[in-house]
Structures are given as C-alpha cells and as structure tokens.
Design brief:
The complex is a heterodimer. By secondary structure, chain A is mainly α. In chain A, about 70% of the residues lie in helices and about 0% in strands. Chain B is about 70% helix and about 0% strand. The longest helix of chain B is centred in the N-terminal third of the chain and has 30 residues. Classes of the chains: A mainly alpha, B mainly alpha.
C-alpha cells in the first residue's frame, strides 16, 4: 500500500512534531515518553485517528530516544529505559567523546527501532489470527497471565506486584456493570460522578505526571544540571565503521528489546538492563564495559528502541498493552471509539498500515533530527525543572478537563491519582502492575462472567476448556515459578555480598 | 457436598455485578493482610538492623511539597469560578516562584514569563486551534 494513500500530509507533519517534542521531553530528566503521550493525548480528541497516531507514535519514538542525551551527558537517565546508557555513555563524555557517544546511541536506536518494526509487522497479524478464535475463558486467562508476568518481572516482591495488579482491577470495577446495569462499589454521594467509574486518562496522567511532580517537589525541585560537558575533544570521532564489530550485539540487543517489550507491563528499563547484561556476558572484554565502551551503548539503546515495536505487538493483536506507554495508547484508541483486540488489524487495515508507516517515519525523523542537531538537543538538559513542571501541571489539568468535554470531576480524579502515584511507590504498590490491572479490570470481569454464564457457574471451566487454556495455565505457572527462583537468587547474591 | 458443587458459583442476573467484585475484594483482603503481617513480622525480627519506616526522604522539602499540594487543590477548586486564563496565570506564577524558592527580581520575571506564555499558548492551541473545551 503506498505510504501517502494511508498517511495524510497532516499526519506526517504531526509525526515530525511528535518526534521533536518527544526528544525534548525524553531529554529532560524526570520526564518520560509515557508522560509525553499522556499530556498530548487530549489534543488528539479533535484529530482524525490516523493523524493522532502519527503524533503519538512520534512522541513515543522521540521520547524513548531523547532519554539517551542526559544519560550520556549528565549520568542521569532521561527516561528509565536509558538506565544502562549511563554506564558507558557518561565515561565517554568525561573522556571528551560526548558527541561520538551520542551518535553511537542514535544509530543503535534507529537499528533497534527498525528491527522491532519488522517483527511487529510480521508477528502481530499472526498472533491476532490465533487470538481471534479465543473464547472468553482464554481471554480471561491471558489477562491473568499479563498480571502474573508483570508481577514476576518487576522489582520488589512478587506478592506485592500481584496485589498491585488486583488493586488496579478493584478500582476499575467501581461504577456500573454493563451486563445488568447495576452500580457497585461507588461511595455514597458520588453516584452521579462515578456512574462509569474513573476515566482512564486522568488516572493515567495523574499516576505518571502529577505523581512525579509531587516527588520532585518533595526532593526540592533541584535542577540536576550545572555540570559542564565537552562534546568533542580530541580526534576520536564517530564513524559508522564502529558498528562493523557490533553486528551480533545489535541484533541480539534488538531481539531482547523486542521480546521484553512483548511481555505485558514490562517497561524499558528491563529491556535496557537485560540487553546490557547479555552484552557483558558475550563480550570479548567484559571488564571494559562500564568504562566508556560503545558496545554498552549499542546494547542499551538498540534494546530500548526495540522495545517500542515489541510493546505494540500484544496491544494490537490481543488488546493487552506491552508497557505503560502503550497502555496510554489504548486511551487514544478508546477516544476514537476503536477497540483494540484480535480483530483490530483485520477490521482497520488502513490504521494498521498507518501505524507501521508512522513508526517508519518516526524512526527516520528521530535519526535525522538527532544525528545532525545533537549539539542543540544536548542543551535541553539544562532547562530548569521549575520552568517545566508548572507547564506540565496546566497541560495535565486542561487535558483531564477536556477529555470528556468539560467534567470538573476528572480534574479531581487527576489530583487524587496524582497523590496515589506519589504514595504507591513508597508503600510498595507497583504502578505498572496497578495500571495494567486498572486498564484490563473491566474486561477481566466481562470475560469472567461470560465464561461462567457459559458453564452455569462452574469454575472448573477455566481448566477444562481446551488445550489453549492449559497452555495459558502452564505459562502462568511458569511466570510464577520464574519469579520465585529469581527472587531466591537475588537474595542469595545479596547475602553473599553481605558476607564478603 | 461433592467437589463439583464446591467449585460452582451461583449465578443470577440480578447479582451479576457483584460476583467478580466480591472475589477480587476477598483476594485483596487476604493478600493485603498477609503482606501487612509479613512486613510487621520482619520488622520485629531484626529491629536493630532495619531503620524505622520513613515515608518522606531525608530532609524533604516541606515548603515545596505542601505548597504544591495546596496550590494544586486551590487551582482546581477555583478554576471554574474565576475562569481558565486568569486562574492559570496566577497559579503558574505562584508555582514557578515556589519551585525557584526565592523572590529575586529575576525569579519573578521568569515566573511571570512562564505563566503568561504557557497560559496563552495553551489557551490558543487547545481552545482556539483544536477547539477543546477549557474550564
């Protein structure tokens, strides 16, 4: 399908703009791609679906990529997904090779991006065609699997992770059950406001943007950056030849990124960490990693851009978001009245190719913009937080208010969940798990009730439905067992370190 | 009671909306109390080793933290009564000043610029360009 039959000039322009803004927001420490999309989501209310996809995909790619700038220059990851970029990027900057480091990172990013795009293009329709035959039993079990896998991979205790997910489901149940139009769990006095429960968007923006704001306020809004950095000192310049020896590394890291992205709810930091540690395992001189080797940058950055395509796979084929950012994209589809799920690709072919083209363009724009004007983007890290955060607040409030055409209660929802977003990490509730629970909660209920309607209330239906259900149970158990073994390993490691 | 009956939930149309929330609530309470007890037991076991639970980070910025919460709440509360443009300009100036943390001439200038530009840009882009309802 020719590219411009699908994408309007407007959507290409918005994609360009999205990448630009995304890079800026990703480059500001404390601001993430997730936040960028959450803030701009209300704007898409008045756009066509295809145009808003251009904007949002641009923000996504730009936001993830922009994170490498402060990671390398200031040793602060601009987004969590650039965590491991600091390990080798910052030492390189200190050696006066900042520009080289940035360009290595940018090149690795675009390779990772294209790689995952290819996997998305071939894999998502396949997965969707399998998922089309799923009954409500399998759909319910997939949601359960999504929740156990987030809990098992996220840091902290497995039980706390599952608890967070179930808490999210619980909150999502507030309001009316559409099957019999009965209200439940609504506190007295709020029946009018909570007929349909809390709106998705204010909850999302609150958890991510306002929560972050409160945390920064607690820490005094320190602007981290009055360090000096030299972008280019000496003759050690960037050249694409660097990548000659990195072929295996690039491909391996992109694969890792894509697959980590596919796991529901697992975000960019996991992709970056896994790819980096594998690069270290396979490296010829592992002791050099962490001292300013391009090898480490390549691993981290190709993995976190690989994540993007990966995270879109479960979203577009199963309707389950691959990370918090794609969770917000669900909000964008809902705004336009489009349901994501196994039928999405076949019933919206234009939109599907639009997404693919937008990703393609976004990656190209990201590369061109950053590669040739990285010197200017490097200055972004110096924008003080006291200027940025007030802007964010107003944008969030306007967005929440506008999302349902002017409901003040949504602004209060924003603030309430902002408070939650601030408190949750402190008491051990994991936000990604909570969020996925909140987003999938109502669907989980629907599939659960539908399954039981079919079986006359017999719970054993979840085990006896058929081979796919059994496979899903095995996956659920495997994710739990993995988590238990992994936490024992970490504990042992910690004990050994204490003893030593 | 045989096994089959034990695994069967009574389903009737009028209570469909309660089945799932009840199960979820039950799991939440069981898990929540287990986690709470586990934390308490751990705490009492190695009392010397573990520092007491601290909600705030050390030396947290009281003024900025509570100031932000108060400003946010007030902003939301008066937004609809006074109107978007005026409230937002005032709110942004105050918030920027709070975050900068002093009242020097330069800070005041920065905050006023920030407040005016943002509000006008948001008002224009959202309200006029994209025709989105503003408070």
């Amino acid at each position: 399908m020719p590219i411009f039959e699908v994408l309007t000039p407007m959507s290409v322009l918005l994609c360009f703009l999205g990448v630009f803004i995304g890079i800026i927001m990703g480059a500001i420490p404390g601001m993430t791609a997730t936040m960028a999309i959450a803030i701009f989501l209300p704007l898409t209310y008045s756009l066509d679906m295809i145009d808003s996809i251009g904007l949002l995909i641009g923000l996504y790619v730009g936001g993830i990529s922009g994170g490498l700038v402060p990671a390398m220059l200031l040793n602060i990851p601009g987004t969590p997904s650039s965590l491991c970029t600091t390990f080798d990027g910052y030492p390189m900057t200190k050696k006066g090779e900042g520009e080289k480091a940035l360009k290595v990172g940018i090149t690795a990013s675009i390779i990772g991006g294209f790689f995952s795009l290819t996997i998305l293009y071939f894999f998502a329709p396949m997965l969707a065609s399998v998922a089309i035959n799923f009954s409500s039993v399998e759909k319910f079990l997939i949601i359960v699997f999504a929740l156990t896998i987030i809990a098992s991979i996220s840091k902290g205790s497995l039980l706390a992770g599952i608890f967070s997910g179930i808490l999210g489901i619980f909150i999502s149940l507030i309001g009316t059950f559409t099957d019999n139009n009965e209200m439940r769990l609504v506190p007295p006095g709020l029946e009018d406001e909570l007929v349909y429960g809390f709106s998705l968007l204010p909850v999302l923006i609150g958890l991510f943007a306002i929560g972050q704001l409160l945390q920064e306020a607690e820490e005094g809004m320190e602007t981290a950056s009055h360090q000096k950095f030299d972008l280019q000192k000496g003759k050690n310049k960037f050249s694409f030849k660097l990548f000659k020896n990195q072929k295996v590394n690039v491909v391996r890291s992109s694969i890792i990124g894509t697959f980590v992205g596919m796991l529901p709810g697992v975000g960019g930091s996991a992709a970056s960490i896994t790819a980096y540690s594998q690069a270290k395992n396979f490296s010829k001189n592992p002791e050099k990693l962490g001292t300013g080797e391009p090898e480490g940058l390549v691993a981290s950055e190709s993995a976190n851009n690989g994540l993007i395509g990966g995270a879109l796979i479960p979203l577009l084929s199963l309707g389950i978001p691959g990370d918090s950012t794609t969770a917000i994209l669900i909000g964008a589809f809902l705004l336009q009245g489009i349901e994501v799920g196994p039928l999405f690709i076949t019933s919206n072919p234009d939109l599907w190719s639009g997404i693919i083209f937008a990703l393609l363009i976004a990656n190209l724009v990201m590369f061109t913009l950053m590669f040739f004007s990285i010197k200017y983007f490097a200055k972004i890290v110096l924008i003080p937080k006291y200027v940025i955060f007030p802007i964010i607040v107003v944008a969030c409030v306007v967005g929440s208010y506008a999302i349902n055409n002017g409901i003040m209660f949504d602004v209060w929802t924003l603030l309430l969940f902002g408070l939650f977003g601030y408190i949750f990490p402190k008491i051990g509730v994991q936000i990604p798990a909570f969020l996925i629970g909140f987003i999938l909660g109502t669907q989980a209920e629907k599939y659960f009730i539908d399954s039981l309607k079919g079986s006359g209330g017999d719970l054993t239906i979840f085990f006896t439905k058929g081979p796919i259900a059994i496979v899903l149970w095995i996956l659920i158990l495997a994710s739990l067992i993995y988590a238990v073994i992994d936490s024992r390993k970490t504990k042992k490691k910690a004990e050994n370190q204490q003893a030593a | 009671m045989d096994v089959k009956e034990f695994f069967t939930i009574e389903m009737s149309y009028s209570t469909y909306h309660l089945v799932f929330p009840r199960i979820i609530m039950f799991i939440l309470i069981v898990m929540g109390s287990f986690l709470l007890i586990r934390t308490l037991v751990k705490k009492s076991k190695d009392r010397e080793n573990s520092a007491p639970f601290k909600f705030f980070t050390n030396h947290y910025d009281r003024v900025k933290f509570y100031g932000t919460i108060i400003l946010l709440t007030t902003y939301a509360a008066v937004l609809q009564h006074i109107g978007f443009v005026l409230t937002s300009i005032i709110f942004m100036i105050l918030l920027t000043l709070l975050f900068i943390g002093n009242l020097r001439k330069k800070s005041i200038l920065v905050s006023i610029t920030n407040g005016l530009t943002t509000t006008i840009v948001v008002w224009y882009v959202f309200g006029q360009l994209f025709d989105i309802t503003l408070p």
